[in-house]
Amino acid sequence: MSDFKSNFWPLFVAALTLIGIVACMVLLWMAGRKKVSAGSDNTTGHVWDTDLVEMNNPLPRWWVWLFVITVVFSLGYLVAYPGLGNFAGQLGWTQKNQYEAEMAQARTVLEPLYARFATMKPEDMARDPQAQAIGERLFMNHCAQCHGSDARGSKGFPNLTDGDWLHGGSPEQIRETITKGRVGNMPPQAAAVGSPEDVRNLSHYVLSLSGNPHDSLRASLGKSKFALCAACHGMDGKGNQALGAPDLTDDIWLHGWGEAVITAMINEGKVNQMPAQAEKLTAEQIGVLSAYVWGLSHGSAAAR
């Protein structure tokens, strides 16, 4: 309720909760006092499906007391735990505190296990079956949502198995990426490039760098415009890992390829973000995970 800027909604929720509890007791009291006239056969006269009749029996005593106990328990629960608007509860319980306590307990239990990996080199962890099993589970929990369970990525999410790295593929660089995250920004360049025809010509030149089908005449006209791109991608188009600028010559396309896609990229730009994991994972977990990710694209080296 702390997200609300006024006291109306916390008070409204608290009042609605208490009114609901009181209404349950009133309903039970009214049901117990109401007398229904019954015939000599102890039925109310209501009949369904020809032969289903409603008996005039009172509620079982155990059912009534169970109902009362439930209401009393709900009142005690609302006193002990948050549930009445802004009231925090006498026990001071919060979801965040419970989560942090459980995470601290889990770290304490797992600390001896990760201590073994703390002194190992990433290359050694990539060969260790236990480290790889743990790394795989960490990957499935924290990375597979974007990169896929097979780590081959999808449109907009890099393939981690092919050896093509935007920010470098060494164990240290991978660890830095997981820890701090990355933000890739391709700014819109249409205004700087010139007319729409100039943008198309530049797109064909970019296609020519990787040997993809292109219009050679347009590519030759667009070559001079590539100087605007060279600041990040280099004059040879091979990219710059320090900036996260992709290699345009290797025929690996993160957001798709073709004149239309490249033209849209030049016109509109693109922003990609890899979220930092330092607050979710311990340094030891990140070490194991980075060794696992490194091993995905260095399988033969890890085996050796």
TrEMBL record:
The chain crosses the membrane at residues 7-31, 62-81. Pathway: Energy metabolism; oxidative phosphorylation. It comes from the Bacteria. It is found in: Cell inner membrane. Keywords: Cell inner membrane, Cell membrane, Electron transport, Heme, Hydrogen ion transport, Ion transport, Iron, Membrane, Metal-binding, Oxidoreductase, Repeat, Respiratory chain, Transmembrane, Transmembrane helix, Transport. Its cofactor is heme c. Residues 130-210, 217-297 form the Cytochrome c domain. InterPro entries: CcoP_N, CcoP_N_sf, Cyt_c-like_dom, Cyt_c-like_dom_sf, Cyt_c_oxidase_cbb3_su3, Cytochrome_c_Oxidase_Subunit. Binds 2 heme C groups per subunit. Signal peptide: none annotated. Belongs to the CcoP / FixP family. NCBIfam families: ccoP. C-type cytochrome. Part of the cbb3-type cytochrome c oxidase complex. This is Cbb3-type cytochrome c oxidase subunit. It comes from Verminephrobacter aporrectodeae subsp. tuberculatae.
